Amino acid sequence: MARRVRLSRDPLLTALAAAAILETAWTVYIGLSLPRHYVAIHWALAWVGLDVGEVATLLAAAWAAWKRRAILALFTSSAGTMLLVDAWFDITTARHGDQLQSSLSALLIEIPSAIALYWVTQRTIRQINRQSMDAAGLHSVRHLPLDPIDPRRDRPQR
C-alpha cells in the first residue's frame, strides 16, 4: 500500500522540484540580462489586465461564498496572491515621486486584503476538512489520506 502512494507522489515531486530548478536558472539569467531601463509598449494593458484579473477572482470568490462552494479556497488564495503581486509591482515600478503613494496603498489596502483573503482560505479548508472527517467518521485529519494525483485515495482506510 505504501508503495502505491509513493509511486503516485514521486512524479509530482519530481515535476515540482524540476520546475523550481528551471525557474531559478531562468531568474538568474533574466536578472543578469535585462536592461536597466525599458519602455513597455503595453504598460497600461499589463496593469489593467492585472486589475481585471483581481476583479474576476474577487467576483468568483463572492460567487463561491454565496453558493457555499469549496472552490472558494482556490478563488480567495488566487485573489490574495494577485493583490500581493499588484503591491509588489506598484512599489517596485513606482517613479520616485509615486513611491509613497504606492507604499501606502500596499500597506493599507493590498497587503491587509490579501491577509484577509488567506484567512478565508484557511477557514474554508478547515471547514472542508471537518466535513470530510465527519462524513468519514474520523476524528483527526491525519487519518484522512490525501493524494493529489489519485482522487480514489481520498477515501478513509478501514
State the end-to-end distance. Answer: 13 Å
Task: Give average pLDDT, whole number.
Answer: 85
Counting helices, strands and paired strands, the structural category is: mainly alpha
Rg (CA only): 21 Å
Proportion of residues in β-strands: under 5%
TL;DR?
The protein is 74% helix and 0% strand.
Structure description:
This protein is mainly alpha-helical and 158 residues long. It has two domains: 1-38; 40-141. Helix content is 74%, strand content 0%. It contains four helices and no strands. It has helices at residues 2-33, 43-67, 72-93, 99-136. α2 packs antiparallel against α3 (72-93). The two termini are 13 Å apart. The mean pLDDT is 85.
Which terms summarize this structure?
158 residues; 4 helices; 2 domains; mainly alpha
Provide the fold topology.
Blueprint: H1 2-33, H2 43-67, H3 72-93, H4 99-136
